[in-house]
Design goal:
Oligomer: single chain
Distance between the termini: 95 Å
Order of helices and strands: HEEEHEHEEHEHEHHEHEHEHHEHHHE
Number of strands: 13
Strand content: 5-15%
Shape: globular
Strand order of the largest sheet: 10-9-11-12-13
Structural class: alpha/beta
Helix content: 40-55%
Radius of gyration: 25 Å
Largest sheet: 5 strands, mixed
Number of helices: 14
Length: 351
């Protein structure tokens, strides 16, 4: 009887220990804070507060996360982010790559990295991501940082996600002041006709496109604002006869922190000017052509690009705006990089 009683007491003690451990675990879980954020798709997502392990896709998202001092919490990236090693401080390793882009994600790699959230853009594999990651407790957040008009909203969203609200507010305030200055100075000004081209001949921007608001905020009269397709033919460009031309990079030039070489800039300019019939375009005749690298145009959801285009079009109306200085602040303060010149052609000076 004594042996039976002793065994009973041991079993009872073990049961109490297990119950106690489970109770403690439940208490710890219940004490974990969460918040609900509304992402760019309008979806409400309940996430840990703050997030400390994130996998991210799209360089525009990466730059905003870097700008609010939250990059230390990123444990995985897509190949576009990984390939710009210097632009992101050589912080990522090959094993942290989770796919080519937001459209091609290796979800097994995401799961291996054990993040709390995956942040990607709305033009990515959002529904597939939710379907495959939800069983593992990984939340999916959509952030469309490539839309200029949503810069403030997206910066604040990421500030909430990572508990970096003050840093996000500082970032937003800096660029909102610059944008308000443009709006004030260019109010009621007769707009100058602009043809915008992205990388390849005839690739322009129309309402709803990723570059449209970058151009509109600059005060330009986009000659294809009424077009239905982002791809236009050369004859229609000649016919609409823009006064100014802005081109972002070239299909063969990578987007990265290091600027294009002078030879690359000159090659892009030469190809553009020597297209058949383009010698009849006012912008070509008057040499009013401005080249932006792919890297420089995209800062702060393309607001850096807006500043350059505005200054190119209306230098006399914007005496207090130096876009190169804005780019320098973006690099040094918000991307934690050394200033580097040469991302535009003709090149802007700091003084």
């Amino acid at each position: 009887m004594r042996k039976i009683a002793k065994i009973f007491l041991i079993v009872l003690s073990l049961c109490c220990l297990i119950v106690g451990c489970n109770k403690q675990e439940k208490q710890m879980t219940s004490q974990g804070k969460t918040i609900t954020v509304t992402d760019s798709s309008g979806t409400q997502v309940e996430i840990p507060c703050p997030v400390r392990r994130a996998v991210i896709s799209n360089a525009y998202n990466a730059e905003l996360i870097n700008a609010i001092n939250a990059m230390d919490y990123v444990v995985g990236v897509d190949n576009y982010i990984y390939n710009d090693q210097r632009g992101f401080g050589n912080r990522f390793k090959k094993e942290q790559v989770v796919g080519t882009s937001q459209r091609e994600i290796n979800f097994e790699n995401v799961i291996k990295l054990n993040p709390e959230v995956l942040i990607l853009t709305g033009n990515g594999s959002v529904e597939e991501a939710r379907r495959k990651l939800t069983p593992f407790g990984i939340k999916v957040i959509v952030c469309d940082a490539y839309f200029t008009q949503d810069f403030s909203k997206n910066a604040k969203l990421l500030g909430q996600v990572f508990g970096k609200e003050k840093d996000a507010e500082d970032l937003v305030n800096y660029f909102e002041v610059k944008l308000k200055y443009l709006q004030k100075q260019l109010k009621d000004v007769k707009k100058k006709r602009l043809y915008f081209e992205y990388r390849k001949e005839g690739s322009t921007t129309i309402p709803g496109n990723y570059f449209y608001k970058m151009v509109e905020f600059s005060g330009a009269d986009n000659i294809f604002k009424d077009a239905k397709n982002v791809n236009v033919d050369s004859e229609s460009i000649i016919k609409r006869n823009p006064q100014y031309i802005v081109k972002v990079s070239d299909i063969n030039v990578m987007s990265k922190y290091e600027p294009p070489t002078l030879a690359e800039h000159e090659k892009i300019l030469s190809e553009l000017k020597n297209r058949p019939g383009w010698d009849n375009i006012d912008a070509v005749k008057d040499n009013k052509i401005f080249l932006l690298s792919h890297y420089v145009h995209g800062g702060a959801s393309k607001l850096v690009g807006t500043m350059y285009i505005a200054k190119f079009l209306y230098p006399e109306l914007l005496p207090d705006l130096n876009p190169e200085e804005v780019f320098k602040v973006w690099l040094e303060k918000y991307q934690h990089l050394s200033y580097i010149s040469g991302h535009t052609y003709p090149a802007y000076k700091l003084d």
